[in-house]
Input
Amino acid sequence: MFYTPSHNRRKHWYHVLSIEKKMLWMPVGFCLFALVAVVALLIIYAIRAMDYNMNLVGQSLPGNILYDQAGKVVTPLSSRDNAPITWADLPQELIDAFIAREDDHFFEHGGVVYSALLRSAFNNIAAMSYKQGASTITMQLTRHVFELRGKTLDRKLLEIVLAQRIENQYDKKTILCQYLSRIYFGQNCYGLREAARFYFGKAVRELTLPECAMLAGIVRAPSLYNPVRNPELADRARRETLLRMRDLGFITPEQYTEAQRAPIPTKPRGSIVSSTANQNYPAMWANAELDNLDVVQAERSQGMAVLSHLHLPLQQYLERALAAALRVVEAPAPKLPADWDNMPGAEPNELQPKLFATAERPSGLRTNAQGKLRPGELRLQACALAIDSRLNHRGHILAIAGGRSAADAQNRWLTLVEPGRVAAPLVFCSACLPGGNSHHIVAHSARVTGSRLGYDAVHSFIAGLKLGELPDKQHENDLYDGLFPVRMIDLARTLFSLQNMGQGYDLRLINSIWSHGQHLIYTADLTKRAEYIRRESAVAVSHLPPFHYREGTPIVLNEELPGNKGQWSMVCNDRGVAVFVWMGVEDASGHTCETPSQLRKLISQASLALARQLHTHARNLLRGMPPVRKQ
Output
């Protein structure tokens, strides 16, 4: 007997969808699994978020600190006002501009807009790349406070949970004020207070509608949209902000039309920080290096630990020794520093104490390190630099002084000088290049050597060193005689490379940069340097005049610059330390002037003695030896 199915069987609800009962458990099971996974994920990230200190959101911004190679604090790198801006300081136009530009539902959401997140996720999946982040102002503040890095799903989920914690603990006014106090506005401006002062020369509460719109437009791409670098793009970003404000009803069409006609400030109208930010030369040098590191610009507002190659005991010694050397030249019948006696490597009668005791000083010589000079007055100046030349440390700045006082905010290593005979080794290097002929003979005179080589050969070689603008062919003797402008730091760098087999070392102070949360932001390139000067050429001239060398002693150079514009001294040794010193005279305008005849011999001896003193002390410190003292 055959079974015949009945057409009157009872039907279940899932039969309407033509789904068998056993197949129904597959999507239901998947949904249950997904729900459990999401709940578990939320619990995990909620637990992780508990490790973050929410009190950091309401605190003042941390500063940037410079440390030496042993981890000792050297100096703060900024004297900026780190206190967050207050709600009372914010004009309504500024609040509206940032809300319109960055987060038009800021006062309504709880830190996260989930619809925007989903839309962003679909767009990123479609583009197969991370193009949209759907970040609210609260989420952006989260990244600034807690150093959340990278464009990953893990960071985004943690950011969402932390943003909601911030919303639960702080009101909207505090969140917006902290956000505006931390974000980057380009041109080394961190926070709204600095941006208003730098771009417009006014306080935040004084900003007008066009100025508020421009600042709100900058934050999307600070390096690109700031008006000093790209006024056209800054104007476009401002128009987009104003248009968005008009569409949201924050401003009227008449206000929109009038605001977009306002001029864009293409030049800064104020300063970022007070001069005390560069209250000493290590800070001045470190800040200059930081300005050239694009990778750290977004981090400077959050505070960084800048680890340097600086040797703090040597830095402190250099500052004392430089001040003492200047006093010896200035004061009548001075007592010479004890470290100048029996200097290692010094020539017999190189130092003449009697000369310092009997020489007359010019009547207009001002001995006070600070204060403005009156017309006719002169001030003695000096700068010193100690560079590590040990293997694997070459090019590291151990100590730096750009003058006798950083109060004038000038780093004299960046000023121009004519090197004169100090540049003669560069002409000699041109004669020692491989492939030369019998006429390529190094003569005692750089002019004779250059004339034999010809202008084109010498110019081609020196131009490759990128020292600055060189004389044309009609003034070829100026090229051979070193009568062309060179920054002092470039001259020191070139001589240092020449004494280190021609390798092209950059003179660096910064070793690495860390966030205060111990995240590595930057580390200096430690790869081997390429040849800056051909090795054969550098070795051939490294001991020739004007360098002075005796077996077992450091290499010394001590030359007066053309026009009596100061004394250039160098003392260095291979795999040790290289020290450079410039000493000269400045007039009331702050420019280097001709050294009075009464001071020339004194400056020549004091400059070299200071260089020898710093070299000896630096080598002893690096070797762990006690300093040399007078017996």
